[in-house]
Each structure stands twice: as C-alpha cells, then as structure tokens.
Amino acid sequence: MSPTTVNTFDLSGKVAIVTGSNTGLGAAMAVALAAAGCDIVGVSRAHAGATAARVEALGRRFADVRADLASIASVDDIVRAALEAFGRIDVLVNNAGIIRREDALEFGEDDWDAVMDVNLKSLFFLSQAAARQFVRQRSGGKIINVASMLSFQGGVRVASYTASKSGVLGLTRLLANEWAARRINVNAIAPGYMATANTAALREDAQRNEEILGRIPAGRWGVPDDLAGPVVFLASSASDYVHGHTLAVDGGWLAR
Ligand code: NAP
Q1: Cβ–Cβ contacts within 10 Å for residue 183, how many?
Q2: Mind telling me the catalytic residues?
Q3: Which atom of ligand 1 is nearest to the CA of 194?
Q4: Does residue 97 have its Cβ closer than 6 Å to ligand 1?
Q5: Tens of pLDDT, residues 179-218
Q6: Full set of structural domains in the chain with CATH
Q7: C-beta 198 within 6 A of ligand 1
C-alpha cells in the first residue's frame, strides 16, 4: 500500500461516540477507534472503567457518559456531553443493544418494547441528534450502526431482536439516502456469532454451540477484535464513497 492509502485510515483529532462501550463489541470498537487516533465518548449505563483505561493507555481521551438508551430522553444530553468534553463529533457508533428470547406464541409486549426501544428507536434518534451536529459543524460525519445476522435471516425465539435488527438495516439505507449529499456516511456492521455476554446462553448450550460452529466457514466464534478493522474503515475517509451498506463480519456465515 502507498503511504497515501495508509493515511486514509488515520483518525487523529477525531471524536467518536460509542454506545455500549463498557463491554463486548462496543469496548473493542472504542479501543480500535482510539488506536486509530480518536478521542472517545463512551455511553452506557454502567461504569466504563476498563475501556477508559485502555483508551487512555493509547494516549487518547475518554469521556464517560452515563445514559439509559431505553428512552430517548438523553440523546440531546449525550451530544451536549460530547461537545462539552471535546468540542466536536465526527463519528457515532450505535452499538448498544439487547436481546430477549421467547417462543413467538408466548412473546410479551415488555420484551417487544424493551428491545425495540434500545436497538431501533434510540439508534434513530441518537443518529438524528448526531447528524444535526454534523450539519451545524459543516463537517460531514460517519454513523456506524450495529446490525446482526438477523438483519438478513429470521432466527427463532427472538422476535423483537429480529424486527429491530432488520429495521437497523433498512434505517441504515434510509439515512444514507437522506444524508449522503451532506457528506454523512451511514453504514452498518453485521457481526456474525461473536463470543460476548450477548451470546453466552448459546455457547453454554452444547448442541446449539456445535450447530453454530459447524456452519461457520472460519471454524470459530468471532471475537470482539474482529470488528476493529471494519469499524476503523467505516469511520475513516477510506470509506467516503460507501453509503447505506451493511458489512457482514461473520467468518463466512452468510456465504453458506
Ligand atoms: P453485550 O456484551 O451484552 O453489550 C451490550 C452493550 O449495550 C453494553 O455495553 C450495554 O451497556 C449496552 N446497553 C444495553 N442496554 C442499554 C441501555 N438501555 N442503555 C445504554 N446502553 C445499553 O453485547 P455485545 O455482544 O457486545 O453486543 C453489542 C451489539 O452487537 C448489540 O447491538 C448486539 O445486538 C450486536 N450483536 C452482537 C452479536 C454477538 O454475537 N455478540 C452478534 C450480532 C450483533 P450497559 O448494560 O452497561 O448499559
């Protein structure tokens, strides 16, 4: 690669908001963005101590913002906190997400609303708040949503999760259509089966674990660091002409 090509992945001086950055995939993406040069605004309900320490060890700054994305009441506060901490926003990673498992015949309204509120409604309104700031800054910006294999497939026993993640794929396209001309790139990453708290129940079920592993061409569960390269690519100028795309990072799962 020429030096020019390499430099397009440089994020020095950029500010990234990462929701759910205290653990799992969000922590890995926050650290990857920091390694590429970003200061990080981490959003979660719990303390983000370990991620903050990893970001600061890389010489970047970390602002710990506590917010509950079960409601959209805090989306403007999140943007305000980012501006107070670092003065601008360049990247938003909508990673926070939850899952509820139940047969569709039994699935309850609480499990529907809880998942849709965090995974889809807050994602939209936080994207809107960030995009308004990108427009005020006249800077353009990058929004990276976290989708799922269930943006492409149906799954079982996860009705609201499938609806929300299929919605994430559609919204990613809609927002790209509306905002591409404003130099705002909206794309998504669809992780495959990754070893985090979110999938602990699947890995503990020996039969499900074997079934899942058996159809992953790469022959292993994904790990959070598998998202490092893709998130830096989608946050950087290397992806300036990529709009509305959902990038599967799945060890080949969808290719089967
Ligand atoms: P995880 O370890 O369970 O982490 C979920 C994150 O979301 C945590 O940081 C959590 O922080 C945050 N969060 C949940 N509810 C929240 C709320 N109400 N307000 C603010 N933050 C909230 O899961 P993960 O595997 O890293 O998943 C991250 C994303 O990837 C999710 O969107 C998930 O659907 C998606 N995904 C995961 C996989 C996988 O195989 N692991 C595959 C496809 C997609 P707090 O609870 O501390 O607030």
Answers
A1: 14
A2: 161
A3: 40
A4: yes
A5: 999 999 999 999 999 999 989 988 999 999 999 999 999 9
A6: 3-250 (3.40.50.720)
A7: yes
